Amino acid sequence: MLMSVPRGFVDREQERAGVLADVESVRSAGDHGVFVFQGIAGVGKTALMLWCVQQLAPSFDLVLDASMGASAEVRTVEEVLELFLLRLGVQAVPPSREGKLAVYRAQTAGRDVLLVLDDVDSAESLEELLPSSPGSVVLATSRRRLEAFELAGFTVVPIEVLTTDFGVELLSAGLAPAVVAEAGADLAAIAELCGNLPLALTIVRAQLRARRQERPADLLGRLRSAESLLAEFVVDEERKLEFVYETSYTSLGALDQKLYRRLGLHPGRQFPRWAAAALVDEDERDAVPAALRSLVRATLISEPAEPDRETATAARDRYDIHSIIQRHAQGLVHEHEHAADARNARRRLAEAYLEFAVARDLVLSGRLRFGPLFGGAVSPAHEGDGAYARAMAELETERANLGRIVTMASEAGLAELVWQLAEALVTFLFHRGYHADAITVYTTGLAAAATVRRDTGDARPLLKMHAELGTALFAAHAHEEATEQFEQAAQLAGELGDDPAALATLAKMFVWKGLVHRRLGRLDAAITAMERSAALVADPRFPGGLRVREERLLDMNSAPILAGLGRTAEAIAAGERAVAHFERDGERGNYAKSVANLGEVLLTADPGQRERAESLLRAALVLEEQLGILDFEAGTRELLGTLLNERDATEEGDRLLVRAAELYELLADRRGAALRARLRAAG
């Protein structure tokens, strides 16, 4: 017999209402209804099913129930039939399977039967046990995601983990109201650590209620500091949570088990198929798609649900592993994997993410790179129309994982990969305005580059990381800290002497110093820095393949400074050269910025240029919105909004300014507060 409905049942209103309505519909039509509650172990499938049984049972002539599956003593169809026949009062149970089925169908004919089966592992089992009378209903649970359930026409009811609010509600059931009120933040953090998994939550709730001297804060500290989180989910020394996943794991084939364990090495819960392939040996990779399907069927991992058209391709190649299940996999790595094998798997994973990032960074920019993969070892991921947008979207999808991979590679001592990963993310993080992420990534990359210099004598990675950390600090308006990084990069460049890449980086440092001076209103110092950069770009030792691009970048960045100094004709000429170059070159981010800068320059020219300035700013805004470059977009909105307000188009102007303030605030840019104050002052 199955247990009664668990106390403290929460949520599932949509699923409950849907099942009850569907049962009523199939019974009214005189059809069989088969409903399979499906989800990972511990998600509450049985609890939901039993709640539905409680509501439905009074309207049926007969309720038959049994547990069939892996979390209990496994029963075959024949054993369940024998159990049911005894409950039906059959005195002489036939010895053969066919005889049992015949008597079972005879006994259920003409009776409305509610059949309740827990832990079913096949559609065939449900088909065989289906009562013979029309209008009978089967409610079943399964931790297996099987195509056969769909093929048979069963109604699959997917059960997901709780939201944090409902997780806290389940966790709080039975606790004193004063404790709940005082420890709300701790309870929410505990729910998050439990992955909002009902079984995990009910276990720690039992601990809170039984261990009277342990407060929620104490429990949270214990869970956070635990060497093995799953080992903390015990009731009277019985590891209830670990057992359910161990059962699923032991049912897998050898390669499926290996891949499952190795997924514990991936630093994020969501992962693409190619990352999973990197975790196994090269001669095993062709079998990875089949292994992933096995893990999906075992509900140890899941696939994204119902992707929309725009994300369908990326979603099709991505999977998700619940945080508690991933912890189980991590424990198996320590138990079954040699440390060298685990380290090699982490290295392959970092290398796979590096190739991914490099291939997309090559699409985004033609800037100078130092990493060896940029020398032709990896091709651009996309070409032609839409290449930039596709590359940015793919990097956005993997953004969290890329940051975690940098940390993982650093902790694994893979310094030579860490700085390359950091370098490969430069354009993406800058264009998206993820300045806090960039500072974290480049700080880690800087430490790795210092290790590379110590171990190999190569100072170029360190030069690159000082430069990029400086740009991230500049973007975050940490001007003093940014200048310090630019100075250290310049010093290293000087030590490297005639190295063309060092010379190019030194030229770039003068540009960034010039931009700092401009930000701080020191326009004379700014244009001096730009002129020093121009002299280095003109040096015969400067890399010839980069010279034209760097000259146009100098034009782009110098134009607003020249305009601010009253050198308007020079500024317009420089801005137009930059626009023409980047329109041809295809670097869409720099093209958008050059168009915006030229529009800004024209605002300082005679009033006859205002119409052209507005046109350019509108064109730049469209580009920036398309590319998702929020930092550029905010600045252009502020310029255009100010221009429109000056000519009394205040409705559109204020709308642009309000959105600019919102974007600045989203980017944690202090210009947001200044713009809000300006808007309030204007009324």
TrEMBL record:
Task: List, for all copies, the residue spans of the domain called NB-ARC.
Answer: 29-172
Superkingdom, natural source: Bacteria
What SUPFAM superfamilies is this protein classified in? P-loop containing nucleoside triphosphate hydrolases (SSF52540), TPR-like (SSF48452)
Q: Which InterPro entries match?
A: NB-ARC (IPR002182), P-loop_NTPase (IPR027417), TPR-like_helical_dom_sf (IPR011990)
* Name used for this protein in its record: Tetratricopeptide repeat protein
